[in-house]
Amino acid sequence: MLRPWQISLGAQIDAGRSTPMYMQIIHALIRDIETGRLTSGTFLPSSRELASALGVNRKTVVLAYEDLIAQGWLSTEGTRGTVVSRSLPKSLGPFDPGPVPMSDPATRAVPLDDEPQYRFSPPPERPLALPGGAGIKLDEGAPDGRLFPADQLARAYRSAVQRASRANRLQYRDPRGTERLREQIADMLRSQRGLNFTADNICITRGSQNGLFLALQVLIHPGDAVIVEELTYEPAVAAIRALGGKVIPVGIDADGIDIAEMEAACRRHSVRAVFLTPHHQFPTTIAMRPERRLQVLDIARQFGVAIIEDDYDHEFHFQSQPLLPMAGYAPSQVLYLGSMSKLLLPALRIGYLAAPRPVIEAIAHRVSLTDGMGNTITEETCADLIESGEVRRHARKAWRIYAERRSAFAKLLESELAGHAQFTMPDGGLAFWVRFEGNLEAIEERALAAGLRFASHRSFMSRNSAEKGLRLGFASLDATEAGLAVAALARAAKG
Fold first, then answer.
1. Rounded to an integer, what distance in angstroms lies between the CA atom of residue 123 and that of residue 103?
2. Out of 61, 110, 142, 346, which residue is the most buried by the measure of CB atoms under 10 Å away?
3. 42-52, pLDDT tens digit by residue?
4. What is the rounded distance in angstroms from the CA atom of residue 389 to the CA atom of residue 382?
5. Which residues form the HTH gntR-type domain (predicted)?
6. Of 411, 414, 407, 420, residue with least CA distance to 475
7. Is the full-model pTM beyond 0.70?
């Protein structure tokens, strides 16, 4: 029989850890079985003997043994004692010769092996999300989550839960999303954006990025090409590549995507889709002019190309009435992607896709594969907020605040960065596109060292020849925060 000091348990048990002692013993014994230290048919010490060696209560060991017997790792053989189950393979892993000294403090905790023993696709060197931590965050155009009252949101959640429970709507349901929210969004798109969609043309997603990924899943196969602008939304590029698609960058000018280059790309490649942000181009904020939109649609029809229209912040246009989405006059050519994140809160994770019904059914199937269904409670809450008029009231309030912040941010940029950067006041959206004089890489390094957190200019470039600049969000910053951020950026720009 193995003696207690011949088992590595002592090196793995620590009363100071938060994990219960009996669970520590269970994990240690399983590990010793998996590594081959304890082989099939090996007798273990009695509960009394092991408890004495480990300095624990005998009941703790009994509880661990009983649990392992119930799981099938151990078995009892009457008066002979407890044994590693004889039904297990004789060797489950390489045997580590020699006992681990119980008195060695350096080995009292078994470290997790953080190197997986299998193939996987690693993440990119530069993460898509801005890092957390201290310092001032200059986002790419996020709303200010502080503007929506937390108590009002809590009341809406409580009301939605109660109403859904009474109506038995808290079960598994349609992967397209709750019918109430799809109807509310379809009505909003008809009345405010001129899109003739019904609830059957809507699929609720977990934010716009989830919607974009779902759209690409039903549009492309590995090797298919997707056109993006040379300055674009990096997560879209990453999603295309993750699905095996080929990214085809195309130039842009003051009116939008370069039509001649887009047509040439469609002739050279097997293009299945084009990703566009025509209302407020990401990242430059320019609006695609109507004649350019019609030209894009002509090419898309000629080559059978789907247009993914990401209308991520339609409501926030400050100079005039926003242009109608392309989906409004070409619904059979366009997959329209929208979000409630800018309108309400990013944390709600409510986005939506609007498209012809067969496409929505295909997307719903993808939802079934990856998620089963969305978040019913949050969707019901969002539907209540739209139905009660709270979304419209909040949008009007936020619009006024963001309009003021936009003007104030422009004045800050003019005063702090005069002679070191250029920008054009955006007609809409929640960010500025700023082009810097000098070495932008060096400016970024100094700004990061000063405690600013922002997206690198390279994150916007789908090809190296694209214009360099930074997209600086203003909506999520109050006056003090914006002042500190721009001042730090100015110091970095001036060297």
1. 40
2. 61
3. 899 999 989 98
4. 11
5. 19-87
6. 407
7. yes
